[in-house]
Amino acid sequence: MNKPLAGAGLAVLLCAATAAPATAAGAERAARSSVKAVDLAGTVALDNCSGSVVRVPGSQAGDPALVLSNGHCLESGFPAPGEVVVDKPSTRRFTLLNASGGSLATLRASKIAYATMTDTDMSVYELTTTYRDIETKYGIKALELNTARPAQGRAVTVASGFWKKLYKCGIDGFAYRLKEGSWTWKDSVRYTSACKTIGGTSGAPVIDDATGKVVAVNNTGNERGGRCTDNNPCEIDESGRVTVREGINYGQQTYTLVPCVGTGNKIDLGRAGCTLPKPARGR
Questions:
Q1: What is the 3-state secondary structure (H, E, C) of the chain?
Q2: Torsion of CA 49, 83, 221, 90, to 10 degrees
Q3: What is the rounded CA–CA span in Å between residue 118 and residue 11?
Q4: In a 10 Å sphere around its CB, with 0-12 CB exposed, 13-18 middle and 19+ buried, how is residue 138 labelled?
Q5: Which residues, 6 or more positions from 126, have their beta carbon under 8 angstroms from its beta carbon?
Q6: CATH for 155-255?
Q7: I need a labelling partner for 208 at 20 to 30 A (CA). Which of 92, 174, 258, 280 fits?
Q8: Which residue, among 80, 67, 79, 78, has the nearest Cα to 106 in the 3D structure?
Q9: Fold match, 43-145 / 155-255
Q10: What distance in Å separates the CA atoms of residue 280 and residue 130, rounded to the nearest whole number?
């Protein structure tokens, strides 16, 4: 995986033929021009990973803010295959960054609202601070999660709060299944080779350059050409064929989180349209 770090600077285990009408092209250009260039505003640095303050379209200003990162970035360690964490108390701290990567404040979690490494690699922390407070005190607006599956060919930026660095590339395609060691993820985003993410970029938001919305969360990459091993994920297609792409990095789509966020920004895995993995019965 695009490894969490044990400390700053130390990497450990675990990145046709007809033209469109001029009016349509003009409208698209106008829409894109209204979106500011992607920067680090709203990203956060964890002690071992990256993350971001996020919202869904239905989030309200007075709701407790949410921080998105990876399941493998949890302070308690990697969730086991099949394990789903919900509503677990946490006092984890996050350093909120401005556009240029300057530190603005320390935000604190009240709980891990959701986390898993099954089917996806995602953690969602609920903060003790509301969106209104963050915007009023620090001038930072939360990044919005896109509600639809991203498209191949889109230009994206992986915005790492840990390294205070932007990695720019495109969506090269999707892996039907991405297997790394004991974990398997579904419909993973594959970046073009320009996104050379490294340890510490885990959990960084993957932002669509044209819309400014989050479409994925960065999580892993094949470092040495290994086949389906730790730090060397492999792609598996519908027929079971395995493909190894050394040096290529991946993220997990986030539109699947949106239907699972209900009133008050509470994670509700029973909501209509929510397909995220759920805890096993009895847990």
A1: CCCCEEECCEECCCCCCCCCCHHHHHHHHHHHHCCCCCCCCCEEECCCCEEEEEECCCCCCCCEEEEEECHHHCCCCCCCCCCEEEEEECCCEEEEECCCCCEEEEEEEEEEEEEECCECCEEEEEEEEEHHHHHHHHCCCCEEECCCCCCCCCEEEEEECCCCEEEEEEEEEEEEEEEECCEEEEEEEEECCCCCCCCCCCCCEEEECCCCCEEEEEEEECCCCCCCECCECEEECCCCCEECCCCCEEEEECHHHHHHECHHHCECCCCCCCCCCCCCCCC
A2: 0
A3: 24
A4: middle
A5: 64, 65, 66, 109, 110, 111, 112, 113, 265
A6: 2.40.10.10
A7: 92
A8: 67
A9: yes
A10: 31
Are 44 and 97 in contact, with CB atoms under 8 Å apart?
Answer: yes
Q: Which residues, at least 6 apart from 144, have a Cβ–Cβ distance to it below 8 Å?
A: 54, 55, 56, 57, 212, 213, 214
* 52, two tokens: 């971001």
Tokens 């971001």, residue?
Answer: 52
Does residue 15 have a pLDDT over 70?
A: no
Domain boundaries, the chain: 43-145, 155-255
Candidate from 14-18, 158-162, 185-189, 190-194 with smallest mean pLDDT: 14-18
CATH topology of domain 43-145: Thrombin, subunit H (2.40.10)
Residue 9 tokens, joined:
């600077």
pLDDT above 50: residue 28: no
Model pLDDT for residues 125-157, shown as the tens digit of each residue: 999 999 999 999 999 999 999 999 999 999 999
Nearest to 213 by CA among 146, 122, 131, 149: 146
Q: Which residues contact 245 (CB under 8 A, 6 or more apart)?
A: 190, 222, 235
Q: Is 104 left (phi over 0), alpha (psi -120 to 50) or beta?
A: alpha
